[in-house]
Structure prediction request, 499 residues.
Amino acid sequence: MKVTTRIMESIIDSLSAGIWIVNSQLEVEWINTRGFRCLCREELAALEDKRCFRKIFGMREICEDCPVLKTFGSGRTEHLDIKLEYEGQSKHFVLTATPLQRKGQKSFTHVIEMIQDVTMHQRIGEELRRLNELQTAIIENAPVAIFTIDKKGVFTSVNPALAAISDLGFKAREKLMGFNWLENSYTIKCGLAERIQKGLEGEAFQLDDFPFVTYRGRNQFINFKGVPLRDKKGEVEGLLCIIEETTDRVRTRVQLIQEARMSAIGRLATGVAHELSNPLATITAHSELAHELLQQCDNRGLERADLQDLSEYLEVIQEQAFRCKKTIKNLLDLNRRNGFETAPIDLSRLIDDLVELINFKKMKIRLVSDVAPDLPRVKGDLYALRQTFLNVLNNAIDAVEERADAQISIKAWPEGSAVHIEIEDNGAGIPENIVDLVFEPFFTTKGSQKGTGLGLTLCYEFLSKMGGTIEISNRAGGGSVCRIILCPWTEDESLEQTV
Prediction:
């Protein structure tokens, strides 16, 4: 029996919690070696006042809602959360009082009281609650719509921002919770349902400036991001969706692109005026000569020499008239608003048209053109490529405008399965610390009167759509060079266009 008692005491002593036996007078009669406040059995035996609330808890009065007294009253195990100053720190404890009664007995005279330090658990719980409250506040106040749908496509959570984007007002949560988005006819028609389904199969996706129609029929553009939600086993159990409305941004970008386009056209006004002035002056002079010739022939018939002169005058007038027509057509083509169309492009002709359109001589810029005679047709959109070259040439013109020996060179040649174009200038070049930023939207080293900072951004976007590339670097000896690579038009693509 003594051996069993010693084993039981050893087990209780090894527990990390403080355990003691208390009588109905709240006097501690036994304490395990772990104790509390470094109190051992020898010290307990020497105490005159052994009441638990005095020595163990350091209180003058009985603890409020004392679990020991409650246990003596109820006959059941009772609990109490208590906060104490211990070892110079404020700590949280849980007191548990359990009746100490032998098997078969209904009454008891002692209670086993156990105290556990739950400070760390309490702190972790408080931190988790704080983080949860913070997370909830962020989601609820986020300017973007954040919501979740389950495996079947049914809304399971919705934040307030979705109300504004969906045009459902303050009842958005009420109307959307439980609604199956995958079965919505418009979601299916616009292709969004297909992307959501792939997201629910584990494929994250990002849709930028996606055209969408709200439940009230309002056209809008959105950035839509879908992130699969997985359980502990890695199985997809839903989809986290984040939507940001970009309608105003898209409209602003379209407006800025148009302004950049018009700015480029305005830049050509002087050159175009010159291109039209010369042929119009020639037309006027030759029409006057023809008119004088006809007046001289009023009283006599036209001789063979007169007919020859008249024919030459009319040929010159026709040639110059077509030259004016071509110049005006090229200018109007720059402002075309049609969508992006892939077609074969005669690159040599496009470069010649642009060179004619820009009056380099009047700008006192020496132009060096080295275009290979056997250039293949390239794949792309004629308007986009014209706008790209025009933007690059305008940048080169700006770079050399203050140089007395201003020079711009254009080189184009086929190489392998691509067509290479280089446009060089002998300007000041680009500072090394900003050379990597030239394709960023709205980034410009020019004044506000000369550019919007969208020219090279548009070039990059246009060429990317055509499968081409563009890079800009400083040129050895000063100035900069723009390298453009385009894909040639193939017979397979011609066949696809025909079909």
User: Anything to note?
Assistant: The first helix runs from residue 2 to 14. The chain has four domains: 2-123, 142-245, 269-333, 338-499. The radius of gyration is 43 Å.
